Amino acid sequence: MPYVPSPLIPSATADHNFSTANLPYGVFSTSSNPTPRIGVALGDYVLDLTSCVDLLTQSVEGLTAEDVTSKDLNCLMGRESKVWKGLRRKVFELVTGESGLTMDNFVSLDSVTMHLPAKIGDYTDFYSSREHATNVGTMFRGIDNALQPNWLHLPVGYHGRASSVYLDGCDVVRPQGQLQKNKDDPKEGSVFGPSKLLDFELEMAFFVGGPANPPGTPITMAEAEDRIFGLVVMNDWSSRDVQKWEYVPLGPFCAKNWATSISPWVVSLEALEPFRAPTSAGSQKDPEPLEYIRDPTYSSYDIALEVTIQGENMSKPEVVSKSNFKNLYWNVKQQLVHHSVTGCNMSPGDLLGSGTISGTPQDSFGSMLELCWKGTREVPLGTSGEVRKFLKDGDTVSMSGVCKKEGVGCVGFGAVTNKIYPAGTKLKAGGANGVWKAA
Amino acid sequence: MPYVPSPLIPSATADHNFSTANLPYGVFSTSSNPTPRIGVALGDYVLDLTSCVDLLTQSVEGLTAEDVTSKDLNCLMGRESKVWKGLRRKVFELVTGESGLTMDNFVSLDSVTMHLPAKIGDYTDFYSSREHATNVGTMFRGIDNALQPNWLHLPVGYHGRASSVYLDGCDVVRPQGQLQKNKDDPKEGSVFGPSKLLDFELEMAFFVGGPANPPGTPITMAEAEDRIFGLVVMNDWSSRDVQKWEYVPLGPFCAKNWATSISPWVVSLEALEPFRAPTSAGSQKDPEPLEYIRDPTYSSYDIALEVTIQGENMSKPEVVSKSNFKNLYWNVKQQLVHHSVTGCNMSPGDLLGSGTISGTPQDSFGSMLELCWKGTREVPLGTSGEVRKFLKDGDTVSMSGVCKKEGVGCVGFGAVTNKIYPAGTKLKAGGANGVWKAA
Ligand SMILES: [Ca+2]
Ligand SMILES: [Ca+2]
Ligand SMILES: [Mg+2]
Ligand SMILES: [Mg+2]
Ligand code: NI
């Protein structure tokens, strides 16, 4: 469904993040109605799905009132893909035609408080950008051994912490923990203190949809697209010094379990389809993946990604990285299929992160670790005069993603933006959405 | 509360798993009432807490009807520890005195179907038995480098998959996945096939209780006991060949995410208190743990653990391992505190596994990997004439735990028992509890 103007919502122009070509799902509330409910973003407005339940359930096969009136997207996510796809098509029809919808069905985007789109049952993070894995491998093992032997054979991943996936807007507190005493000799043990190497990771993540596969029955490549509900932008907050000391041999643990943050609007694969593009690798030939994970339509999506940092004394955010979702060697379908290969049941509402998305040029690296090359160079923050190696207290980090293409409406994700507070800061759950904020 | 006979339930003798010294919580249903509800096991009966809600809420401070009438333990777990402890004391008083309870408040243990005790938000597994870590390290790196440099400084752990934590009785399907082609040279890549090195891991796990700590505010050692609701026996099913190929550098993923199984009754720390015992290490002096994780009452619990295997052609289960919960270097409090040190929010219903519990003698090793010493020796299955290295299709693996001590009533966990089916077997969710079974 390419872009068409919406007679009711003229602000939904072709170059708006939320053009009629997008129609992302989110969960919102308003001061006049604090109950979280499902909406679709359109221009400067949100279509409140609870305002037109009958219209939707009467015309979308398989859609129930519960799917549309729940306080999160889990119920809708749990339906067969034809239900969520059908709902999006119906919304498109309603907002682009003479539909019976009026402005009473919409609330202003300005006036909404966003909530986490779903209860996240399990959260997984991959490591699927070859450029990123090569950078990290080169730093720590040298260029000749940059990629581990398994890396080109499977999407390396690890389970993360679902409880600490927070929404755009939440504050984050610099973690404290165990840090290796002598950086060159782990045998000297550790000291306790605030992490000095605080980092972001520029990622995207997708929500799993569709009924869960039974234990022991993997998802096939043919089924994968119907099990992907939609994508968000994600910041996988990371503490490099905590990670360095703890991660052998079982992987990252306390270095990453304290926060992960996501943007609030979930963009469907159908909205992304016009932006399908070759990956930065182009093809997977050397080696060819094993059959269960071979993708006959191997590709990714052309999603421009950007990271900004604004220090406390800076007047505006400055861009530190521009990357693209194409910079993934393993795509979302391959990640999902591999995750289930041994029989893992994948449930609606599970969140699967891409891994840090880095490109080839230095200014497309997706983490401070790479941008400052392990602390060996200073990263200028635009024309502010400030520089960074790792993140400072008071820094606000923002990540955004957008798809643009001649003749197709814009499909934007919006942003995930969070501010860092000093170690020991107490947070309080506040506002209608319970987002954690420094007092 | 030491053992006292129950006038109403004479089967709850001092040496019964469910003596009055135990009083574990579980979730059950019956054919006449298929609604899952909370019960306390006592002798050959289960006290149905929904049958005496008023009695309980009137006399236990802070206890609400919802805590007692929910379909899982999450609500009760989320209360301050004084509420769950108060409830257990009240139940003790009721079942050991002249209380107004009658047999109408009980159902026969024979007649109940058990359910998962809680919705598990996040599942984490540690690696806290020094004997186990030393065995594994010796096999793969030699005795001189058996423990990694960080191991004695922090409880090494990793996040696991919550969706695939199943209950006692579920069937498990041999996983398929990527296996290293040449075991001595990872550079030759991988092949697809059924895991040949299928293993159990003898573990225990605890459920987190109490209100969640806010993000950024770690749990202290002083607070830890009030955040531990109770323990179960756990089998962390593992595929050693999948693990070997995939786990560098981010840890175990598909090797372990396909199944973890737990026993149904949750035993409280108060019930375990009379069995408090020194750990197999005795003390933590070399090195002394950092202050945040130092335990002034450093100890564990004397829980005898046993693993049996019954092959399809065997007439009875045969013991392959006898271990003890004392064989943990890092105890449950230290695990919980370390998990939260960087600010991770720990939620009621989270499940934290101990790691494989191995002792020093060969017959106390907690996995086939150790028992067969990486495939170099055959493990006899009792007098059956059968031997194993790793697990075979058709094997039933059972793990149980029990505390016994002169003058104190028995505190038993019961068992977690599961049968292995061949790769590709389709499972169906069946019975009142939706446990997955081969057709
Ligand atoms: Ca994270
Ligand atoms: Ca497992
Ligand atoms: Mg990451
Ligand atoms: Mg384990
Ligand atoms: Ni989880």
From TrEMBL, chains A, B:
Q: Which residues form the Fumarylacetoacetase-like C-terminal domain?
A: 124-418
- From the UniProt record, list the reaction(s) this protein catalyses: 4-fumarylacetoacetate + H2O = acetoacetate + fumarate + H(+)
InterPro entries, A to Z: Fumarylacetoacetase, Fumarylacetoacetase-like_C, Fumarylacetoacetase_C_sf, Fumarylacetoacetase_N, Fumarylacetoacetase_N_sf
Query: Which keywords has UniProt assigned to this entry?
Result: Calcium, Hydrolase, Magnesium, Metal-binding, Phenylalanine catabolism, Tyrosine catabolism
Keyword Metal-binding tagged: yes
User: Which cofactors does the annotated protein need, by name?
Assistant: Mg(2+); Ca(2+)
One example of the protein's molecular function in GO is: metal ion binding
Q: Name one GO biological process term.
A: homogentisate catabolic process
What is the E.C. number?
A: 3.7.1.2
Q: Name one Pfam family in it.
A: FAA_hydrolase_N
Q: Where does Ca(2+) bind?
A: D125, E201, E203, D236
User: What pathway is this protein a component of?
Assistant: Amino-acid degradation; L-phenylalanine degradation; acetoacetate and fumarate from L-phenylalanine: step 6/6
Where on the tree of life does the source sit, at the highest rank? Eukaryota
Detail which positions bind Mg(2+). D236, K256, T260
Q: Which residues form the active site?
A: H132 (proton acceptor)
The Fumarylacetoacetase N-terminal domain extends over 21-117
* Protein name (record): Fumarylacetoacetase
This chain's source organism reads Triparma verrucosa
